[in-house]
Amino acid sequence: MSKIEHHVVSLEEWNTARNELLKKEKQLTREHDALSAEIRSLPWVKITKQYIFQTTEGPKTLAELFDNHTQLFIYHFMLGDGWKAGCPMCSNWADSYEGINIHLPHRDCSFKVVSSAPLDKIIEYKKRMGWQFDWISAAGSEFNYDSGFSLKDGQTFPKIGAEERSGISCFLKDGDDIYLTYSTTGRVCH
């Protein structure tokens, strides 16, 4: 005897219910497309501050992170100074980052992962997890604070209970000018 309890109907009734649900799915798709258009039309912010990041190749500026591309996609990984390990959800996402480095450069985009932890801590955790993607440190820089992904002086983000939060930042480089084009934060993941 089956232990599954679920409403069972004929194929005809199922098709009717499925078609009604499909109308809602299509409406949601239209709303998502409209939201995507709004995101693309957001104003940009010109970056005027000089940020220095610690990388395995030595210190680099924000401009140097573009690696000769016009776009830069940064994932803010929750790993703070003194943490024993990275955020479990950030780590889960990071398991899929190796393929990004194949696809994004073909779209004129560089990909970096950044944390506020010191570079040696990042290298240690990256090795432990077996990752190869480019993960850099914003330690000693105001980048994560200015971007809203890290807090100072023992403050913590509500609901997260940590001084770090994850998210993405997207930049565009036009000559010597760099613009923040999109950013999202607030994934509750620690």
Describe this entry's structure for a reader:
- A 6-stranded mixed β-sheet has the order 1-8-7-4-5-6. A two-stranded antiparallel ribbon has the order 2-3.
- 30% of the residues lie in helices and 24% in strands.
- The chain has a single domain, classed as Glutaredoxin.
- It has helices at residues 11-40, 88-94, 100-103, 119-129, 143-147, and strands at 45-46, 52-55, 58-61, 71-76, 109-115, 135-137, 166-174, 177-187.
- The two termini are 41 Å apart.
- CATH class type: Alpha Beta
User: Which structural class do the helices and strands define?
Assistant: alpha/beta
The number of domains is 1
Strand content: 15-25%
Helix content: 25-40%
Short descriptors:
190 residues; alpha/beta; Glutaredoxin; six-stranded mixed beta sheet; two-stranded antiparallel sheet; 5 helices; disordered C terminus
Brief digest:
By secondary structure, the chain is of the alpha/beta class. It is built from five helices and eight strands; from the N terminus they run αββββααβαβαββ.
Q: What is this structure's SSE topology?
A:
Blueprint: H1 11-40, E1 45-46, E2 52-55, E3 58-61, E4 71-76, H2 88-94, H3 100-103, E5 109-115, H4 119-129, E6 135-137, H5 143-147, E7 166-174, E8 177-187
Parallel strand pairs: 4-5, 5-6
Antiparallel strand pairs: 1-8, 2-3, 4-7, 7-8
